[in-house]
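Researcher: We plan to redesign the surface later, but first we want a full-length starting point. Tokens attached.
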């Protein structure tokens, strides 16, 4: 009695398609990681420039020139602007108000959240453009751009 032996057959298109799909998915994930949630590479670059201008403006009009403004677009999270003041004993509420107004009235888009922090002392606040939009519009006027990206 002869035992049937295992044969290997070419897997055909399936053997080629699966690795190709994996490569395409990996490439898409890498592309999206650089773009941000709903932001094209051009938007991210423009928003980085706007964040640098806000940083320059806040530094120029402040007794606390140690300020850093950064735009963060992450596809797995929301898009944010972080404003960090390096000061101790500063008038945090006034600085936070100026920072929030500067970002709100900028053309940075898309944008979900504005974070303001003062170090040392770890004072911080944040506003959501979704939850706080009505209040922000009453206080600072309308956004110059739409965030419906």
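Model: Full-length starting sequence:
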């Amino acid at each position: 009695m002869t035992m049937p032996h295992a044969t290997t057959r070419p897997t055909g298109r399936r053997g080629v398609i699966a690795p190709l799909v994996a490569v395409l998915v990996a490439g898409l994930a890498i592309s999206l990681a650089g773009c941000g949630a709903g932001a094209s590479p051009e938007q991210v670059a423009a928003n980085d420039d706007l964040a640098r201008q806000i940083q320059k403006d806040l530094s120029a009009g402040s007794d606390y020139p140690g300020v850093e403004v950064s735009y963060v677009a992450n596809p797995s999270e929301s898009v944010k602007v972080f404003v960090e003041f390096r000061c101790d004993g500063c008038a945090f509420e006034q600085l936070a108000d100026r920072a929030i107004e500067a970002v709100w009235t900028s053309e940075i888009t898309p944008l979900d959240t504005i974070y303001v922090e003062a170090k040392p002392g770890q004072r911080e606040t944040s506003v959501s453009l979704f939850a706080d939009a009505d209040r922000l519009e009453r206080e600072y006027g309308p956004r110059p751009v739409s965030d419906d990206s």
